[in-house]
Design a protein that fits this description.
Blueprint lengths: L1 H26 L17 E14 L2 E13 L4 E9 L2 H14 L2 E2 L12 E5 L2 E7 L6 E2 L2 H10 L4 E7 L3 H13 L4 H8 L7
Parallel strand pairs: 7-8
Antiparallel strand pairs: 1-2, 2-3, 3-4, 5-6, 6-8
């Protein structure tokens, strides 16, 4: 009998504890109403360079997919190129943007408008020559090279496509030429001299 009494007293205590907890919960302030977050504005611009249909021939027949080459950048020297493939065009574009975001590189832009020196970039059989230009010249380039230069944030430049006109390779060659730009400070540092001595 004594054991039963102990069990009953324990249950009474626990019910009292539950009541206390409920009372404490009532005393709490109501939850704040959280405002829905507005979607963040895209920091990077995106442009389509090329969308092509690719075919995989198998024993069972041909399988068609779409390949999208994208260029992304912030217009201030940050730029990247990526390719995505999918059964649907929008999905291929989305994958291309993700790939381009992983390949972002910083490009040297002089005075926020042009490049520091003449440079040729190569990718496969495509070669692109880039030349700095005076203020107000604009972007003198076509197709894929223009897309890359605009997204990179170059305002005044002259370019010429030499060799193959494959859009993807022209875009990659343009990016290669931009990446290999050297500032006067960098060259001076490599030679162990001051900028004035160059």
């Amino acid at each position: 009998m004594e054991e039963n009494k102990e069990i009953v007293t324990e249950t009474v205590e626990t019910t009292e504890e539950v009541k206390e907890v409920k009372q404490n919960n009532k005393d709490r302030k109501p939850r704040r109403d959280f405002k829905k977050r507005e979607p963040q504005k895209k920091l990077l611009e995106e442009k389509v360079i090329a969308i092509t249909r690719v075919t995989k021939v198998t024993k069972g027949g041909r399988h068609f997919r779409f390949s999208a080459t994208m260029v992304v950048g912030d217009g201030k020297g940050l730029v990247g190129i990526g390719t995505g493939k999918s059964m649907e065009v929008p999905e291929a574009i989305k994958k291309g943007i993700q790939a381009a975001n992983k390949n972002l590189v910083k490009v040297n832009i002089v005075d926020g408008r042009t490049i520091s020196h003449e440079q040729t970039g190569k990718c496969g059989r495509a070669a692109v020559l880039l030349k700095p230009a005076k203020e107000g010249t604009g972007i003198i380039a076509g197709g894929a090279a223009r897309a890359v230069l605009e997204i990179a944030g170059v305002k005044d430049i002259v370019s010429k496509s030499l060799g193959s006109n494959t859009q993807v390779n022209v875009a990659k060659a343009t990016l290669e030429a931009l990446k290999s730009q050297r500032t006067a400070e960098h060259v001076a540092e490599l030679r162990g001299k001051k900028v004035e001595e160059l």
